[in-house]
Amino acid sequence: NRNCMVGLECSQDWGWSPYLFSPLLCMHTLSHTCCRDTDKVWSTVSHDLQMQTSVVRNGLEKYSVLQLNYSATMDQISAITSSAEYCEQYISYSCKMSRLLNTPDGNPYTWWVGKANEKHYYWGGSGPGIQKCACGIERNCTDPKYYCNCDADAKQWRKDAGLLSYKEQLPVSQVVVGDIDRSGSESKLTVGPVRCQGDRNYWNAASFITPSSYLHFSTFQGETSADISFYFKTSAPDGVFLENLGNTDFIKLELKSAIEVSFSFDVGNGPVEIIVRSPNPLNDDQWHRVIAERNVKQASLRVDQLPQEIRKAPTEGHTRLELYSQLYVGAAGGQRGFLGCIRSLRMNGVTLDLEERAKVTLGVKPGCSGHCTSYGMYCENGGKCVEKYNGYSCDCSKTAYDGPFCIKDVGAFFEEGMWLRYNFQSPGISVKDLVSRTMLSSTDHDNTVPDLRLNKEALSFSFSTTKSPCVLLYISSYTQDYMAVLVKPSGNLQIRYNLGGTGEPYNIDVDHRNMANGQPHSVNVTRNERDLVLQLDHYPPASYSLPTASDTQFNSPKALFLGKVIETGKIDQDIYQYNTPGFTGCLSRVQFNQIAPLKAALRPTNTSSHVHVQGELVESNCGASPLTIPPMSAATDPWHLDSASADFPYNGQAIGDGVNRNSAIIGGVIAVVIFTILCTLVFLIRYMFRHKGTYHTNEAKGAESAESADAAIMNNDPNFTETIDESKKEWLI
Q1: Taking the CB of residue 207, how many other CB atoms lie within 10 A of it?
Q2: Which stretches make up the Laminin G domain (predicted)?
């Protein structure tokens, strides 16, 4: 019972539904524990089959049957798997001359029995209807002619292992092994516990869109004990959450006002009402949680984190709650119903399927949009949106970024000689921490990281430096495989892969840019088996392919180095030379699959124990992602050359076509002449039109007082000289 209580507390702290376990299961299954694994809470049910159990033949029987007895009943395990979001069970078969599934078309030698005593002919890492093992799905079996390693019937020990994750078929109750009757045949079987996480009912919700909307369910059976919990959000000031009636008995929960939640009932002693008042409005369209309990001793009501209100039951009187009507969620009995959303409604440990009932009910819609539905896109760079009671938050733990929205680069300045090592193998590491969400690889819990083989990688980071050559990043292995990102003496970037199968490593040289120019540059490298994609800064991605002879698996990754390689064993000669004196500059947002080594060194996380730093690591954003303008496309770039052999007119070479050159000169001269003529014409036209309307008057001064025109002329000038008086000049324009 203590384990279950720990599980409840752990669940509440980590945002997981606190109702995965029923009280009955907690009391009767002490070995059913709740464990926190990174950001998930796992419920585990164990059995009595030992790890690496040797499979032996029983007398003359052709098959060996291994039975698994669990610490919980099948009904209890079924309740766990059906309510969980995800379940898994590890299964492993180690073999020496003992075949497993034979072929996809043949009769299997071994099978396992799951829920409802159904036989299943697939193995861990595969799926129903596919008679293959994990290596057959990933196409990496030791003998490519077979779909399981054990089916090759080798005389050396082989193993087929993986996770069974179709929870509808779990748990494994029995394993039947067949090919063990030959001389030299040996086999060992391991079946892990059933592990489940999450609660698929946590977001089982319904939206009530009219005041008369309601859902109805069968009568609530809570004669002596009632345990009711749910979440709600609304903008309405009041409304009935749920109600169930008897002849005189009843039970009801309602939003009585914008700040009051009421829990009322009557067991025959008269109505009892408990009210919790909130200092803040509850109709703020945010999620609020209600927990109401009643037993023969007391009743209580709690809303969010507000103080719990408790009412003691009378020492004498009725104690049984006798109800007969259906349970109504929403409006009932002509009362104003609830407007808004209700989710995760549980009554005495049973989750009511609001969504399914809402699908066939008018006025009610299945589901309810949470904050992440509307605002989840603001969690960037792979950040995960997490619903909160009064909003949402962004979980950046699986990213190389920080901040409220996972957009702050986490970076550091490296002085000469500094280096950082991230060890993939460390006590307590899970292989899943290394493998990305979309990556197919071994999930063998018995394996350590040296047994891991990667078919895919995703690497991204940004950097700035003025020194070359240097090693930016290096990933070593327990084999000769490695991956490196280098800056060559010329300042150009080089991506180097060595996965075996070829005499020399495969290099990708980026020669068109000097990356050691002190500016921030971003690097993104992804590999899917033989296909490689490289993107620098905001330039278009470039695709490459490993040589045909090259292996496609990165075997047994060991450690990731930043700034310098400090590794035992043989190191590539070029990398050895680039290693001195080491990287000087800034590195930022370094991420390899789901591992962020630089962030692990600068932020205390559960992976910080994997990191070792030589020198003083100082946080800095000097290597943050470049904010350069994306280059113009070829269609809109006026300087784009259609082919590499085309010639620039200014590179010192003559233009090939002399006729075109002469035509250009002649056209220029003609254009200048025409322009000159036009300018001249415009000047002349303006001058001519300016004087064309001008006339002179010779009317003498004093003409207005003279008797005649002749007298006026003679009076003004005795010499009768014709004059032009400028003051009398008039202009007609």
Answers
A1: 20
A2: 204-368, 436-622
* 3-class SS of residue 382: coil
Both tokens of 679, joined, read 């300018």
Q: Detail the DSSP E strand segments found in 47-85.
A: 53-54, 64-67
Q: Which of residues 241 and 3 earns the better pLDDT score?
A: 241
| Helix/strand/coil (H/E/C) assignment for every residue in 210-244 | CCCCEEEECCCCCCCCEEEEEEEECCCCCEEEEEE
One domain for residues 525 and 545: yes
Are residue 215 and residue 188 in the same domain, yes or no? Answer: no
For residue 534, give Cα distances in angstroms to 44, 494, 508: 42, 11, 9
Q: Is the pTM of this model over 0.70?
A: no
Same domain, residue pair 352 and 210: yes
DSSP letter (8 states) at residue 264: E
Sheet holding 506-510, edge to edge: 506-510, 493-498, 482-487, 470-477, 557-562, 419-423, 611-614
Q: Does 234 share its domain with 337? A: yes
Distance of CA 129 to the CA centre of its chain: 30
Structural domain boundaries, residue 532:
410-426+453-619
> Tokens standing for 483?
């991956």
Joined together, the tokens standing for residue 7 give 């599980």
Residue 252 lies in a domain: yes
pLDDT value for 83:
81
Gap between the Cα atoms of 308 and 319, Å rounded:
22
Residue 589 tokens, joined = 């947002």
Residue 4: the pLDDT is 35
Residues 212, 353 within the same domain: yes
Mean predicted confidence (pLDDT) in 23-36: 40
The structure tokens listed for 190 are: 């391991």
- Looking at the fold, whether 134 and 264 belong to one and the same domain comes out as no
Least confident of 19-28, 458-467, 535-544, 666-675: 19-28
Mean pLDDT computed over every residue of the chain: 78
- Domain tally, the chain: 3
pLDDT tens-digit readout, 610-668: 888 888 888 888 767 654 444 444 454 443 444 333 333 333 333 344 444 566 678 78
CATH code assigned at 224: 2.60.120.200
Please work out, in degrees rounded to the nearest 5, the angle formed at the alpha carbon of residue 487 by the alpha carbons of 485 and 491: 150
Residue 258 has pLDDT above 50, yes or no: yes
Q: Which helix (H) or strand (E) holds 153?
A: none
Question: Looking at the structure, do residues 185 and 209 belong to the same domain, yes or no?
Answer: no
- Is 327 found in the same domain as 254? yes
C-beta separation of 358 from 366 below 8 A? yes
- pLDDT > 90: percent of the chain: 33
Nearest to 67 by CA among 55, 76, 79: 55
